Amino acid sequence: MIASLRGTVLSVELGGAVIECAGVGYFFHATPATLGLLRRGEEATVMTTLSVKDDSMVLYGFADAASKEMFGVLQGVSGLGPRLALAAESVLNPVELSQAITAGDTKQLQRIPGVGKRMAERMVLELKDKVSHFAGEAPVVESSTAIDAPTTAHPQVVEALMGLGFPEKQAQSAVEQVLAEQPDLDTAQALRAALAGLGRKG
C-alpha cells in the first residue's frame, strides 16, 4: 500500500498530478482543492490511497488526513466507489459532508454529480454515525497558481466534467455560465463552481 508521496511536483493537471519520488513519477487523482496546493518544481507531500481492482491500480492523493479518511468512509456506502467518493470531495469538504450527512440534508448531497435521491438517502442512513468526528477537522486550503490560468480553464473543466459522467453539451453549458458570471476564476475554482451548479440543477 502506498500511504503517502513526498517529492518534487513534476506536473499538475485538472484531474491529478505527478510527484517524483526517488526517480519514479507517481500519478494520482485528486480534488481541485488538493491540486490547488501543488506547484510545479516544488517539493510536496500528499497522503495517498491505492485502489486495486482486477484490471487496474489507481492512486488517489489528499492534502490532509481528514480528506483521506473521509474518502475511505464514503466508500463504505453500498454502490459508492472511489470515483464517486472523489467527486463528493470535489464539491464538499469533509466538514461539509459530515454536516450534510448528520443533518440528513439529502438535497445538499445531491449536489454531488452521480448522487441521486436514493444514494443521498443511503449515505445518510449508512454514515450518520460514522462522520460526526469530522466536524472539527476543516482543512485549510489556500489558492495557488499551480493549475492553468482562466484563459485555458474552459476546455479542461469541460473535459473533467465529462470524465465525471456529464454529457458534453451539459458540461459545456455549465462552464460557460460559470465563467460568464465569474471570469476571473482559475481552473480549480471553475470546476468547483460548475459542479455546484450542476448539482443544484440535478
Automatic annotation (TrEMBL):
One of its GO terms (biological process) is DNA recombination. This is Holliday junction branch migration complex subunit RuvA. It is found in: Cytoplasm. Homotetramer. Forms an RuvA(8)-RuvB(12)-Holliday junction (HJ) complex. HJ DNA is sandwiched between 2 RuvA tetramers; dsDNA enters through RuvA and exits via RuvB. An RuvB hexamer assembles on each DNA strand where it exits the tetramer. Each RuvB hexamer is contacted by two RuvA subunits (via domain III) on 2 adjacent RuvB subunits; this complex drives branch migration. In the full resolvosome a probable DNA-RuvA(4)-RuvB(12)-RuvC(2) complex forms which resolves the HJ. Residues 72-91, 107-126 form the Helix-hairpin-helix DNA-binding motif class domain. Signal peptide: none annotated. The RuvA-RuvB-RuvC complex processes Holliday junction (HJ) DNA during genetic recombination and DNA repair, while the RuvA-RuvB complex plays an important role in the rescue of blocked DNA replication forks via replication fork reversal (RFR). RuvA specifically binds to HJ cruciform DNA, conferring on it an open structure. The RuvB hexamer acts as an ATP-dependent pump, pulling dsDNA into and through the RuvAB complex. HJ branch migration allows RuvC to scan DNA until it finds its consensus sequence, where it cleaves and resolves the cruciform DNA. HAMAP family: DNA_HJ_migration_RuvA.
